[in-house]
Write a structure and sequence with these properties.
- By secondary structure, the chain is mainly α.
- The protein folds into 2 domains: 10-81, Tetracycline Repressor, domain 2 (Orthogonal Bundle), CATH 1.10.357.10; 88-200, no CATH class.
- It has helices spanning 10-39, 47-54, 58-64, 68-81, 88-91, 97-114, 116-124, 131-149, 158-168, 170-179, 184-200.
- The chain is elongated and about 75 Å long.
- Residues 46-65 bind DNA.
């Protein structure tokens, strides 16, 4: 017969509750930083503002995060975890270069549209963004670029690479769809035409 378990010792219960409270506090701090990055921008987000928004003290913020870079990394990971990121592996299943380009760009432009507010401020305040976050973004963009370039005729030529790099850039989407009001599909058709002409030269 198995022994019947007794009640959880008070000290163990208090320790577990304290850990849960700390995790909730950490979550509030990350949420506050994300909110401020997406509304004011990184350059205008201070630790004091994060603390006020989260309802904690500056000391509490620093107890959870050694410095602003650590907080920014946690915020970035949390935001990215909720995004539907472009999937280059799915594009690789498409043999036709032009169709792969259209599909990939629609995927990328959808991501840009959904995250437009945050990404606009991140790009504006890039000098305030930790280098590791910028490097991560550029690495993803290079992966997209290579996946779309690989099957294109003349993909090794500088003109073709420049055309695809321009097509996949957030600032290109921002100009065509944000400033000029094009739909994602219209913008994609426009830049696909540009890339195809570059590949034919």
């Amino acid at each position: 017969m198995s022994e019947q378990q007794g009640p959880v010792p008070k000290r163990a219960y208090q320790k577990a509750k304290r850990a849960e409270d700390e995790q909730r506090t950490r979550g509030r701090i990350v949420d506050a930083a994300e909110h401020l990055h997406g509304s004011l921008g990184p350059a205008r987000t201070t630790v004091s503002a994060v603390a006020d928004c989260a309802g904690v003290t500056r000391a509490t913020v620093y107890r959870h995060f050694a410095d602003e870079e650590a907080l920014f990394l946690a915020c970035s990971r949390e935001w990215l975890s909720r995004q539907q990121l472009p999937d280059p592996s799915a594009w690789g299943l498409i043999d036709d270069p032009a169709e792969r380009l259209r599909t990939g760009l629609m995927d990328i432009y959808g991501f840009y549209r959904r995250g437009a507010q945050m990404m606009t401020l991140i790009h504006r305040d890039v000098e305030a963004v930790p280098a590791v976050v910028v490097a991560g973004r550029r690495s993803r963009e290079q992966e997209w670029l290579h996946a779309l370039l690989r099957p294109l005729p003349g993909h090794r030529r500088k003109l073709v690479r420049a055309a695809v790099a321009h097509a996949t850039s957030f600032t290109t989407w921002q100009s065509l769809c944000g400033a000029h009001g094009l739909s994602d599909r219209s913008a994609v058709e426009l830049v696909v035409g540009m890339v195809e002409r570059a590949a034919q030269r």
